[in-house]
Write a structure and sequence with these properties.
Radius of gyration: 16 Å
Strand content: 25-35%
Structural class: alpha+beta
Largest sheet: 7 strands, mixed
Number of helices: 5
Order of helices and strands: HHHHEHEEEEEE
Shape: globular
Length: 182
């Protein structure tokens, strides 16, 4: 018998992705303690309960729309608790940035202070999963992931719709840029 791990019997990777993205982006101005991380998680779970969305996330995961609702709640929470300002925006979803330049854009963004990137990927190993891009080196995107998935190879990544072909599939609207301000 093996122990369960996050994501195996729940679909809260979206909540974890938000918390982990904030932790990375806030690091220069605020290091979240374990206790603060627990309170942050509890706050987002309570938000889901109050809005009758807990069971939906438990069984089906976090939709794109719900991710933005959770980010809006996170923005309020961070300011109230820590006086931190959260800015988030989706990456361009249309063709004004060619696919080949997208990773260059993300790499440059992640080099800026107080930033991180949330993305939703789909592959045969993980299924549908929200994660956090920590940094990019050449063709490898290092992840800060609640499922302990360490990285994705950008040569094996596509922005095309999912097919069972061994690739990492990412939809542009599912790439969210995060920045923290004091």
């Amino acid at each position: 018998m093996k122990a369960y791990y996050q994501g195996e019997i729940d679909y809260f990777c979206g909540v974890y992705a938000i918390i982990n993205a904030v932790r990375i982006a806030a690091q220069p101005v605020h290091n979240f303690t374990y206790h603060e991380g627990c309170l942050f998680f509890q706050h987002l779970i309570k938000f889901l309960y109050k809005n009758e969305k807990f069971l939906k996330v438990l069984h089906h995961g976090t939709s794109y729309q719900l991710m933005y609702e959770l980010l809006a709640e996170t923005k309020k929470y961070l300011f109230k608790q820590y006086r931190l300002k959260l800015h988030y925006k989706k990456l361009l979803s249309f063709s004004d940035l060619p696919d080949k330049n997208l990773w260059i854009y993300i790499q440059r963004y992640l080099r800026e202070p107080n930033t991180s990137t949330i993305l939703r990927l789909h592959n045969t190993a993980l299924g549908d999963h929200w994660t956090v891009a920590q940094r990019q080196t050449s063709n490898i995107l290092k992840l800060f992931d609640s499922y302990f998935y360490p990285q994705i190879n950008l040569k094996r990544t596509t922005f095309k719709p999912y097919k069972r072909d061994g690739l990492h599939h990412i939809q542009r609207p599912m790439i969210i840029l995060i920045k923290i301000f004091e």
